[in-house]
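User: Hey, my collaborator sent me this sequence without any context and asked if I could get a structure. I don't really work with proteins. Can you help?
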Amino acid sequence: MKNVKSVKTVKFSQNPTKGLFQTRLRAISLYLARLWYTKIELQRKIPKVSDNMRLPFIITILGLLSLLSMNSLSAQPSAGVVLNSVGETLINNDENRLSRYFSDRVELTIVSKTENLSQAQAQYVMDQFFAKFPCSSFNILHRGKANGVLYALAEYRSPRATFDVNIFIKISSAQVTEMRFTRK
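Assistant: No problem. I've predicted the 3D structure and written it out in structure-token form, which is a compact way to encode the shape of the chain:
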């Protein structure tokens, strides 16, 4: 196969949930272009391709596309991976990365104040929290699943205070829907 250009490496964005579908779709289209080019080259070498060969070729292509599309739909990180990532961001006091795991609206409770916030508002509140109570240690004590939600009970320690933390992640979207910080 001459004149076939090599496939370029595609970098993934820092947010694992964004851009992955487009990257997979691009890889699929490049793969199909290669297959099409190979088919054209074969047609040049073999003067006549019978109609009996077209149906298996089309079925094969459709099968590959359906398998790849199912794989790309499940490429979103699992709720367990998100929970581990949320723990890392809390340890690192990284409100920017933490907010990427929030759903569009997140219920945030700090001490006794509960608010339903957008991602940007929740990021600002967590920035203020990290400034006041930087993390010295974070331990997940218990994990569980109930009603389509993955939850975790954890302990957040700061030099100034210790908090019990409850994290709730919707399994279907793998996004944090609620976080509670209760002072011990």
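In plain terms: The chain has two domains: 20-73, 79-183. You can pass these tokens on to your collaborator as they are.
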